[in-house]
Amino acid sequence: MDNSPLQVLTVPTAPYPDQRPGTSGLRKKVFVFQSRRNYLHNFIQSIFSSIDLRDRQGSTVVVGGDGRFFNRTAIEVIVQMAAANGVGRLIVGHHGIMSTPAISCVIRKYKAICGIILTASHNPGGANGDFGIKFNTANGGPAQEDVTNRIFQISRTIEEFAICPRLRVDLTTLGKQSFDLENKFKPFKVDVVDSVESYANLLRNVFDFAALKELLSGQNHIRIRLDAMHGVMGPYVRRILCEELGCPANSAINCVPLEDFGGQHPDPNLTYAADLVDSMRDGEYDLGAAFDADGERNMILGKHGFFVTPSDSLAVIADNIFCIPYFQHTGVTGFARSMPTSAALDRVAKATKIELYETPTGWKYFGNLMDAGRLSLCGEESFGTGGDHIREKDGLWAVLAWLSILATRKQSVEDVLRGHWLKYGRNYFTRYDYENVDIDAACEMMEDLEIMISDKSFAKQRFAVEDKIYQVEKADSFEYTDPVDLTISRNQGLRIIFSDGSRVIFRLSGTGSEGATVRIYIDSYEREHVFEDTQVMLAPLATIALKISQLHHRTGRKGPSVIT
After folding, report:
1. What is the spatial distance between Cα 277 and Cα 290, in angstroms, rounded to a whole number?
2. Across 237-324, where does the E strand assignment appear?
3. Which terminal residue of the chain has fewer beta carbons within 10 Å of its beta carbon, N or C?
4. What's the CATH code, domain 9-194?
5. Among the options 121, 198, 404, 502, which is catalytic?
6. Structural domain spans, the chain
7. Where does the Alpha-D-phosphohexomutase alpha/beta/alpha domain lie (predicted)?
8. How far is CA 206 from the centre of its chain?
9. Looking at the domain covering 198-424, what would its CATH class be?
């Protein structure tokens, strides 16, 4: 057996023009990574080159993914390139699998310089699906825009990458592995770690596990149904909810991580989590929850499939935040929501006199506020909720937050939410997704729409639909000034705000791998009529949104791909 030091090579390469990270990293179809020579290598080298060599030398980096197709191949390359680029220690999830919240936790726990997350989140997997690479910084959260811009600029001029091609890591065996490299004084170390334990230990310090165990397996226990959608969350659900908190094993479904997520779309909403929705209808279960591929997102259902919108979920957790022991100890410094998320949270913040922040879409904006001690709880309408225990949205944390509320309030999910509406009024909210739209058509529509709403004559314009009249109060392209570092983020969505507080928002999503996704968000507040059908209540505003944008005509679409 050859025990000589492993050779580090410098390999010539040529740049690609399309490696600009989006809202959640670089996402492309798998075949792009497979068919374009050194496409993966270029982007990984651009990440390492964006870090000062002095910071890189001997540093710790965390790597893991959601288990989708190409995950193992990518990890092998990342390990080889990390060694060649001076990283001293790599912490990798067992079998290369680790949830995004767990990676954030591990980065913070071991004071790693960064983390590389292999996920395309809620996008489809498999050989014909999507693959993604996300870069998180030392705070455990998504890289800020100046960092991703630097990575992109490097990727456009890259000429070579460093790699140790003979280095092979056994991801199936827990423990430490050590490798001697040419011209390196210290060996390169790889720790293959239990993907669940560090994260589970963090949650034990956030929630009252004894109270949750009583709720889930005590004498008067409730029944829950959890759908991991064949993503990364299966092992976490089984270990934490079933083995530790006492849920029956058959409470958890689709818990084996699969490279193609069982052929399903791992997006926890009413359209794609149909298995869960169907299983909740007969009233056998008191709470249902689904998770996306990498464990960031969650959907909450009550008995008989009673749907809790992510906006309402965030507001309810905020109103009951001291049901969670962690916040009893730390206190609450602030709430935040992304701009398209409904204003339900705003009403709780006002009543509790807690500071509220409205940010662009993207968890990185929340991270800055958390690091400055200004934010405790935040969320997005896109099924993401989280606290300041880590710097990522956290699906399982949200489910445990809801279970903590049920344990304290001794009420059903539906009763908790209906009581919330009676107390605060209700923000009716919906989102229409038009997926894989022609990029040029989508951009032209948004440009024309911005010109229209920016015209002074648009302000105070009135729209009549059936017996309702809506008058424009304000219309703009949302921009955000970060109160911590004063950086300005422009062009974050087009807003039309009416005199009654209703909002229509248009935005191009940055999480797809091909084409464009046009999103229309509709948010309308009602103080009295809180138990009506959402789509009926929002139909007039939907009509106005489609009329103003001419979306169906401009994109050739007859209707949305998904309604949430």
Report:
1. 9
2. 252-253, 287-291, 298-302, 306-308
3. N
4. 3.40.120.10
5. 121
6. 9-194, 198-424, 426-563
7. 19-160, 198-302, 323-424
8. 20
9. alpha beta
